[in-house]
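User: I'll paste a sequence; please echo it back and then give the predicted structure.

Assistant: Echoing your sequence first, then the prediction.
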Amino acid sequence: MVPRILRMTALLGVVTTALANPSPTRGGRSHYENPELEMTPATEAACREHLERNDLQKIGPEFGSGQIRLPFGFTSLTLNEFSKSFVDFVLHAPGGIVLDVGAGLGAVTLPALNKGTKKVIANDVNDGVLRLIHKRIIQEKMELFLPNLELIAGAFPEKLDFAPRSIGAIYIGAVLHFLDLPTIQRSLQKCFDWLAPGGRLFVWSATKHLGGKLAGLSGFISDLAAIDPVLADIYGPSLNLLDLPSYIALFKEAGFVFPKDAPPSYFSRTGVKFIESAGTLDQGSSSSVVLDGREYVGIVGLKP
């Protein structure tokens, strides 16, 4: 059976489904672990309306700096200190093809395209989100870059596959902390195989240092709502709370080394606020994340 992938068709100005297998990519259809997270036609129409009005922040309630809440989850509109390092690297990526896993509304995809890289492959579990990336490109008058963009809908890592050594750089922001340990190990190994020698994998994830009701917890939490319903509303039903040494060990296990110019480190997304339907929670409340600078880990793995 020929894999079905979503591709950007510049002439039509839409995302179409093509029965094709263009080198080096191979992908699968959209897959949803939780049907409630799927973007409905009504949701997509509402998001498109806000995009038409150039008021992206009104798509959903603001969540900290550049984070907005959508009916199917949270996404970002801006680069953080770690994602900027990926965008800075794309022109140095071997072969010039880069992959953005969990692309959301294109916070990383658009700046990477704007750098002039050969190709950006944007992946998300939600094909409706990918169509909104196209809308943003049109809105921001970046049509020139459409031939350099490929959109693939599918769950990572199960529904994604690429030719070995075909990708120059991979960005995975706020994705791995939703996966259990075997799936994280499988994800890192697949990324290592996809990368060309000299390619880099950029990963940032939440850690066990989020604090609040999660203080003292580590490892995979399969029922986050039982611990904190508010955080479950933000992150979803499950969360894997690892620390920096754990991620370092997992990267090494997959074969990665760490470039001297980008050592693994913790970082904090200052100003983060957690939103529930009733309003903003104070950071001092029992359901808040207590910020101490270790809430997130940023790791760049180099394929020798």
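The two ends are 34 Å apart (CA to CA). Helices lie at 41-52, 83-89, 109-114, 127-139, 181-194, 229-235, 244-254.
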